User: Fold this.
Amino acid sequence: MTDADALLAAARAAATASYSPYSHFRVGAAVRAGGRVFSGCNVENASYGLTICAERNAIFAAVAAGHHRIEAIALACVDAGPEAPAGSLMPCGACRQVMAEFAGPDLPVSIDGAGTVSLDDLLPNAFRLT
Ligand code: THU
Assistant:
């Protein structure tokens, strides 16, 4: 199993804890940082704007454990069926910007069902202050 495959498996497993009673769209994410794996799922709220994505929950778990550099990330939108538009598999713009805070442009982003791309492919010319 490759590193990407292992991270994708962790992302799919994380999606099972998704709290998504409004969208019924479960997402899981897994981040490798400091040799460890941190996972997260999307957590929705009745006040919809308070919802947080799986990727940010996984990244923030890594940061909360003291890791400011993420080495790889994987995400799995497990409810996007075979007919779903390709875009429904992809990380949202806010999560791309949060990835850029804790990784360089070469960050490998593994997307279940869509392969592995770099952060620079997803967010070219990312806004950075550091
Ligand atoms: N969602 C994620 O968890 N990650 C993304 O990158 C895109 C969207 C979640 C948020 C919401 O709970 C559901 O998917 C539908 O938008």
Notes: The mean pLDDT is 97. The helical segments are 3-15, 54-64, 93-101, 119-122. The domain at 3-122 is CATH 3.40.140.10 (Cytidine Deaminase; domain 2). Residues 20, 23, 25, 27, 42, 44, 51, 53-55, 91-92, 95 surround tetrahydrodeoxyuridine (CB under 6 Å).
